[in-house]
Each structure stands twice: as C-alpha cells, then as structure tokens.
Amino acid sequence: MNASVAIQVLPNVEDENVIPIVDKVIDYIRSTGLNIFVGPFETTIEGDYDQLMDIVKRCQIICIEQGAPSVMSYVKINYNPKGVWSIEKKTKKHHPEMNGGK
C-alpha cells in the first residue's frame, strides 16, 4: 500500500437527495475490496496510488449518473512509494472497537 485517499463528495442536489447519492458512492468504494473507513464527513481508502485515483474519478461519475447535475469533491491524498501508515495505525487508539473494546 503506497497511498491513502480521503474523499468527500457533495452532489449538487436538494438536501433530501444527498444521502442516497453519497450512499451509492460508498457502496461503490466498498465494492473495490480495499480497506476503507467511513467517517461523518469523508471516506478514507487505502491502496495503490493509481487504483485510488481511478476510484476518485469514478466517485464523481457515480454522482452524475445518480442525477446530480454537478458534484464538488474534497480529496486528500497521502502518497509515498515506500508505503504509508495504515488507517488502523493512525486511528486505532481513538476507536475502542479496533482495540477489542478497550
């Protein structure tokens, strides 16, 4: 794993239509089989840089396919050819469920 990406998609639709579109994006991200962490504002994905860039692109297209006339996305990219810290390493101490409930 040489990259991690945090993505927040904001489809330009009425408020009540945002969540179903975002849910479709998250379903797609889950379908990739990569390690992900869904947060209240963004979803973090770990994997190969090129694969993650393709996923970011596809997330935009999904929003349009679901009826949004446009989409604004905020993306954070952590890339290091030698490897990056995992989601678990960065967040485990803050999530008891990752520590066996401790």
Main traits of this protein?
about 100 residues; alpha+beta; Alpha-Beta Plaits; four-stranded antiparallel β-sheet; 3 helices; about 40% helix; UPF0045_domain; Thiamine-binding protein domain-containing protein; Thiamine_BP; MTH1187/YkoF-like
Polypeptide structure, described:
The chain has one domain (3-99): Alpha-Beta Plaits (2-Layer Sandwich), CATH 3.30.70.930. It has 102 residues and is an alpha+beta fold. It has helices at residues 15-31, 49-65, 87-91; strands at 3-11, 36-38, 43-47, 71-79. α1 packs antiparallel against α2. The protein has a four-stranded antiparallel β-sheet with strand order 2-3-1-4.
Compile the SSE list and pairings:
Blueprint (H helix, E strand, L loop, with lengths): L2 E9 L3 H17 L4 E3 L4 E5 L1 H17 L5 E9 L7 H5 L11
Antiparallel strand pairs: 1-3, 1-4, 2-3
Helix pairs in contact: 1-2
Number of helices: 3
Here the CATH topology equals Alpha-Beta Plaits
Could you tell me the mean pLDDT?
94
Strand order within the widest sheet? 2-3-1-4
Percent range for β-strand residues: 25-35%
Which regions contain 5 or more consecutive residues with pLDDT less than 50? none
How big is the Rg? 14 Å
Largest sheet: 4 strands, antiparallel
The shape is globular
Q: Name the CATH class.
A: Alpha Beta
Give, in order, the helices and strands.
EHEEHEH
**What gap, in angstroms, lies between the N and C termini?**
27 Å
Number of strands: 4
Helical fraction equals 25-40%
Derived structural class: alpha+beta
CATH architecture: 2-Layer Sandwich
Count of individual domains: 1
